[in-house]
Amino acid sequence: MPQINQLPDIFISQLFWLAVVFGIIYFWIGRGLVPKIQSVVEDRDKKIADDLAAAQRAREQAEASEEAYRERIDASRSEAMKVAQEAKHQAALDTEKRLKAVDAKIGKKVAEAEGKIRTAADAARRELEPVAAEAASELVSKLTGQKISAKDAETTVKAVLHG
């Protein structure tokens, strides 16, 4: 192979051009591209840090808003409980008033009914006394054979019935 025979003649020139090309590439990347890449990375890091800070501020605001919301909810609940207790108390008072009024009406009706019952019982006793006196007179006459006057039988029956 003839190319291998030429290797010692061109080896130094190839090494020179290799060093020149690598040097150009090194300076082009090192001086041109690396600063641009670093500035992009730094900008990106700064944007991420700013976004994280903004997110943290938003989170703190959200927590503060949530705390205020919870306080308002707690205040509303306590106010609602207070209103409910007042309404319950008022309803109990109204119910008590109604019960007293109904109780008074019922008491009045009971008193009227008791009066009617007493009147009816007295009327029944008055009607019962002559019948009882007549029955007692007949019983005595059948049992003993003696006749008792209606007046005596009536006084005896009255004494037994009225104590």
List its salient traits:
163 residues; mainly alpha; 96% helix; ATP synthase subunit b; transport
Structure, explained:
This is ATP synthase subunit b. The structure is a single chain. This protein is mainly alpha-helical and 163 residues long. It has one domain (2-162). Helix content is 96%, strand content 0%. The chain is built from two helices and no strands. The longest helix has 143 residues, at 2-144. The radius of gyration is 62 Å and the shape is rod-shaped. It starts with a helix and ends with a helix.
Distance between the termini: 163 Å
**Integer average pLDDT:** 89
Estimate what percentage of residues fall within beta strands: under 5%
User: What is the oligomer described by this structure?
Assistant: single chain
As residue ranges, the low-confidence spans are none
The backbone outline, from C-alpha atoms, is rod-shaped
Structural class: mainly alpha
- Give the beta-strand count: 0
Please estimate the helix content.
over 70%
Topology order in helix (H) and strand (E) letters: HH
Radius of gyration from the alpha-carbon trace, in angstroms: 62 Å
